[in-house]
């Protein structure tokens, strides 16, 4: 089995909404719970206040919009995946959050009026859309003058430890695996360079732009299976890649991950893997 012919191209394809529907439950269970701390940090940097109107673009199950609602903002979460929207709605109902709603919407063409929101944000959403400049312009358009736009995205993939563990395990099983392309990079890392993110926010029409690089995502893994679950739930592309493997090869990848995590852990606590973050904020 050879992966080198098709895998790199997949990193530049945009999985359809149905692909995100398929991983919504896993994203909600395995990925979103670890996002709360830096989501809160981003909202603080954006100056979110109680009663502010907050729009979350490409929200997923609510990694950014649920913390905003808990802080007392009036929230509209949007995503092009209906199942992601449903997951958010379930959380709102279970937590009894007020003034929090969700709608299916494309980040490239937001179906809301100009100058509507005090803060517009996107966490791991607009970072991976195919026409990011257009999506950023839309975020600026719907934000009121003097309001803020917040974008949280991954930094350098070379420092994204969960991803690098996963790639290393794949290479151990399938040596011909081509790995990640770098020119151009996968959509997930198109603003991995903080200077690129800063420039795109300025070009979208924002002023006083700052990009915070002091925060990291922390992923706890007790086993190769847990890291496997996290990777396959975080993005449909991971499932596309391992879909090329046989059942035995998939099991071997999980075993290799087990061994790598055992070396990282101290024997009493789960292994901790980190990923760099770029948190960009600007004012309209």
From TrEMBL:
Q: Which domain of life is it from?
A: Bacteria
| UniProt keyword Protein biosynthesis, yes or no | no
- SUPFAM superfamilies named in the record: S-adenosyl-L-methionine-dependent methyltransferases (SSF53335)
Give residue ranges for domain Methyltransferase type: 55-150
What is the scientific name of the source organism? Modestobacter italicus (strain DSM 44449 / CECT 9708 / BC 501)
Q: Which UniProt keywords apply?
A: Methyltransferase, Transferase
UniProt protein name = Methyltransferase type 11
- Name the GO terms of the biological process aspect: methylation
Q: Please verify whether the record's keywords include rRNA-binding.
A: no
- Fetch the Pfam families from UniProt: Methyltransf_11
Q: Which InterPro entries match?
A: Methyltransf_11 (IPR013216), SAM-dependent_MTases_sf (IPR029063)
Q: Which GO molecular function entries does the Swiss-Prot or TrEMBL record give?
A: S-adenosylmethionine-dependent methyltransferase activity
Question: Which Gene3D superfamilies does its entry note?
Answer: Vaccinia Virus protein VP39
């Amino acid at each position: 089995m050879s992966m080198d012919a098709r895998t790199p191209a997949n990193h530049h394809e945009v999985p359809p909404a149905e692909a995100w529907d398929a991983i919504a439950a896993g994203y909600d269970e395995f990925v979103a719970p670890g996002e709360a701390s830096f989501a809160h940090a981003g909202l603080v940097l954006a100056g979110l206040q109680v009663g502010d109107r907050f729009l979350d673009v490409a929200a997923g199950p609510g990694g950014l919009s649920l913390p905003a609602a808990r802080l007392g903002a009036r929230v509209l979460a949007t995503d092009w995946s209906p199942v992601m929207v449903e997951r958010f709605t379930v959380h709102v109902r279970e937590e009894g959050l007020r003034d929090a709603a969700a709608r299916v919407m494309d980040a490239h063409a937001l179906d809301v009026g100009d100058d509507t929101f005090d803060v517009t944000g996107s966490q791991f959403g607009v970072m991976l859309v195919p026409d990011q400049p257009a999506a950023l312009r839309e975020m600026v358009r719907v934000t009121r003058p003097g309001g803020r736009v917040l974008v949280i995205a991954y930094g350098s993939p070379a420092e994204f430890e969960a991803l690098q563990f996963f790639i290393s395990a794949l290479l151990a099983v399938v040596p011909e695996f081509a790995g990640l392309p770098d020119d151009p990079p996968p959509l997930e890392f198109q603003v991995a360079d903080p200077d690129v993110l800063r420039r795109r926010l300025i070009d979208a029409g924002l002023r006083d732009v700052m990009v915070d690089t002091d925060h990291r995502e922390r992923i706890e893994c007790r086993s190769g299976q847990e890291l496997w679950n996290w990777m396959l739930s975080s993005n449909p592309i991971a499932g596309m890649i391992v879909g090329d493997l046989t059942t035995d090869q998939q099991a071997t990848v999980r075993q290799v991950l087990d061994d790598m995590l055992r070396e990282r852990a101290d024997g009493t606590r789960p292994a901790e893997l980190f990923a760099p973050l770029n948190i960009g904020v600007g004012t309209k």
